[in-house]
Give the backbone structure.
Amino acid sequence: MLIRASRILAIIIGILTPLAETIRRWSTWQDNPPAIIDDYLLGGFLLYGAWRVGKDVKSGQRFLAAGWAFMCGMAYGSFFEQVHRYRLGISDPAPISSLWVAVIKGVGLALAVIALLVTLRRLPEEKLL
């Protein structure tokens, strides 16, 4: 079932995103503390949605979709701001090049959109006895 793949991806991204953001902003988070908090919220929403789907697919679907929708909104702004900064020559605080940060954010945005669409698909009706 596709929603199970969405759940697994939510667990992976829900863990990796806050971890990667912590590494990225390790030495600069004091300059703008809210810039790191949003990724923790994103991870929390995805993990909560994945947990709810794991308990009951039908009732958890809306929570997982909300987590993916939150990520889509976050990733959209983050990706295009990163591209804008790259074009201006503003370096990123990450320990990798600004171009790679933009590529990673673009892939994340694409995955979030696909996962949201998959999660929003109608679930198969349960067989009646």
